[in-house]
Known about the structure:
Layout: E1 2-9, E2 12-19, E3 28-31, E4 57-66, E5 71-80, H1 97-102, H2 124-134, H3 136-141, H4 145-149, H5 159-168, E6 169-170, E7 175-178, E8 181-183, H6 187-194, E9 204-205, H7 210-214, H8 226-241, H9 249-256, H10 296-305, H11 312-329, H12 343-349, H13 358-374, H14 388-397, H15 429-437, E10 455-458, H16 465-474, E11 477-483, E12 486-492, H17 520-531, E13 538-541, E14 550-551, H18 552-561, E15 587-591, E16 599-601, E17 622-626, E18 633-634, E19 650-651, E20 654-655, E21 690-693, E22 719-720, H19 779-804, H20 814-826, E23 829-830, H21 832-858, H22 861-922, H23 928-954
Amino acid sequence: MALFNDRSVDDNQVLSISYEGAAPATQVDLWVRDPVIGALALDWGLSPDSHHFSRWYTESPRELFDHGKSTFISDNALLLRSSLHKKYNDSERFLLLGNRITNGDAKWSNTTPQFGEISFIDGYWEWLEDVLARNKDMLTSAKIYDAVFASLFTYVRNTNLIRSFCELWCPSTNSLHVPIGEVSISLWDLRLIGGLSIDGIFYDEAVPSARELIGVDKKGVPLLPSSCKYLFLAYRKIYCASETSNVTIHDWVKFWFKEESRYKQPPARVQKKRLSEPRTSNNPTGFIDGQKLRSEDTEKVFDDLGVEKDVKEETNLAALLSYWLCVFVLPNKQVDQIRPGVFKVASMMAQGKRFSLAVPVLASIYHGLREITSSPNPSKCGAVFPIHYVYGWLSRYYDSYFLSASDKFNCAARMVRLAGEKKAKHFSPQEACDLLKGITPSTLSLLALTKPKQGIVTDHGKHSDSWNDYLISLKSSYLTLRRGNEHIVEPYSPYRFARQFRFCQDIPGKLREELSTGTLETIYQLWESCTRLNTRAEFMIPSHSFEGLATKEYAEWWEKSSSSFCKYKPACAKPDSSPVAPKGNNLIKISITKSKLASEVTQPLSKPKEKEVTKAVTKEAAVVVAVRPKTPLSIPASKPKPTVTNTSEPTSGRKRATVVLSEGSSSDQGERHWKRGKKKATDSDSQLKEKVTVSDLAKLDFNLHGVLANLPDTSNHLEFASDEREGSVDGPDPFDLALRSKHNSVSGAIHLPSASKPSTSKPLMLGRAAPSTVTAFDTGIVINRGRLLAAKIYDSNIKSILGKTPFEKLTSLRPKLQVIYAEFSKLELDYSPLQSYVEKYIQNATNYASMRSNFASGMTSEAKERRLADVDTKRGQLMEELERLDLEAKRLRESLEGIDAQRAQKQHVVSTLQAERANIEATEVMEPADMEVANNLEQLLKSELEEIQNLAWLD
């Protein structure tokens, strides 16, 4: 029989776990901490309202700075407020880890730091798949199904990117410092990225007393779930069998899960440049099959612990959640051990209780980054926090990972898209630093919630879970984490990175109070203040068209206060000097529009195993290629024609292909130049094999009218004319596939075969070949250019179809879109991002059409008119009441002014009488007449004092 007892050791309470008749050496003692939640929790009441506003925004006309256009505009600024900060201080200066490394005060060692990165544990994936299949409803009730599902994979990082991230992180502001200002990880980011709930019960990681563990209330209901005591019994059993006097996560999984392992440990990660998402992975597929019968060995685990039949599933779920909390959600410096303090929370979660997890997780992340950035040797500082959430954050705001299709996993936690052992893109130290500094204001609000029209939301506590969580994430507060006797406090200042919520950015102030820890009462009250709902406060929610800009004052303050380490622009964003066009007549400069696309080239090698090289190419680009002969290319369309000019440049007796990407037809602004190394001419039969990533359609502005149209055949519109004038390109809005190449290239006839019928157009005409020094004809470049041109045409057709199709008919397009995807495959184009965003657009449009239809059907025109009439009537009544109240307030103000004047006059008279009385009393000998005068004055004084008191009462 299991025994749980409370006893005292050195004035500290201890939970003793043993079995009746067992040797004393098998007894396990655990330190007990005061509970914050549960039947025996201490009652501290609510925190003061000093951290709360009745309105969390302000709006005023300001001078705003547009980073994209580098101009100032006058407009209303919608600003987020903070209750934790005082008025800004112009003298504030920031010091980053990057500055300390530059100054020699800190350095990275050669070791690769983990900082809490999860690793493969044999049996956990199989155990988790079984639990997800059996307990989906309970996990959904606790609002953690997606968050638990996310632990089904491994997450990796590029070391240089994480180091650059830490070098730009400021511990005094808990934000990342980049040239445009501050960005940071918000509570809302963690909800979307990791599926972590913001609202819920306080996360109380502490060992309960025996009284709480096995006690019952007046109605005979256990104070804690029955599964909790079985977790402690399992812990004792593993602890006694362990040779290291602790319970490791390997031992925990091995004890509970006795089924056959199917997954093997992924191979060691090799950091190298990749062209696209890896085709193979050793991670699970994410497909959760139905329940399977447990083996006799697994059933024996429950029998040995004495688990009742009706709580077996709950106990098994609580055991897995204990591992999940220790390893995936809130790891600490004992990264390989199970902490018994999590058993109470895990057992309550297994009964469907919802906990506030985003708050302690973000506190842990902020605290871990503070340890790293404050250490002289960050690699060996020993900081441990759930860094995989940082990886997820980087993948949402930066192009740092190869992301899987959004519909690959049925999971709302967006971090699963970067799951896998080969998903991290490779960056050199300089490339990583440039990537982080190159963030633009337009990408800051990717995850923000918006409304069709800017509007006010009142916190009445009755909104949906997502809106309640969003309102909490907009408020300044202190984040707290309680782990046993460890109390962590970190300031949360969303108004420092307000542009991530589509607000304007203004100068932030300093914290009124610096907190890093506190008593248990303080920890709980700060958490309660952070997550408090039903405050009746007003929040302004910007519309989706509102772009968060910065005030003129902020731009000037940031230029003066920010660290020199974060100021300089990325090397690839603005070259030291504009590229000089070579002289001659055969230079073709093609201006194209902005896009998110980048082509990635695999360079052919003579060895059987080809070496993969990633070509990092940015949006703002123009291609400059030396070619012969001069042949203008024409594609009919309605778009304006970019300018094309021709020149040539001899290089070592032959032509050399130069690729420079820029935007605009006549300006050098935004051009980018890469120096090319010399390369021998390739064999004429060699081909340049390339994979092209197709752009997403997330920001396409589709028209919502039209009918379904067939794909037009545009393959026969290409023609070359033998003409000595400037060439031109006129075609549909392309995918802007930016390409850099080191190979020689010559232009030639390009003809895309028709998908429907043979071409009947005239044969392509080649102009008279001019003298050339080209020694090799690279067919790979020609094939590549044809592939890119085909992608542009397909892009135009897809846009046209989606733009002309009503929302109600979009789903009927899927069969025809599959035909287009098949053509992409033939051209070796990676169309998965395009397919993902097209499906997302179709789904969103379908949902909108359904909602619009339901709303229209649910309210007739007569009902709408009656409702509008009622609103107008109520509005008129309220306006009349407001006018009446204004008049009454004016009358009261005038009355008070008159009373104040009378009071001042009476007080003056009283002062005069008091002075006269004092003079009379000072007389040594008082005549009878003087005595009478004194008495009269005293009576008059009393009368005046009574009148003053009456006036004060009226006031």
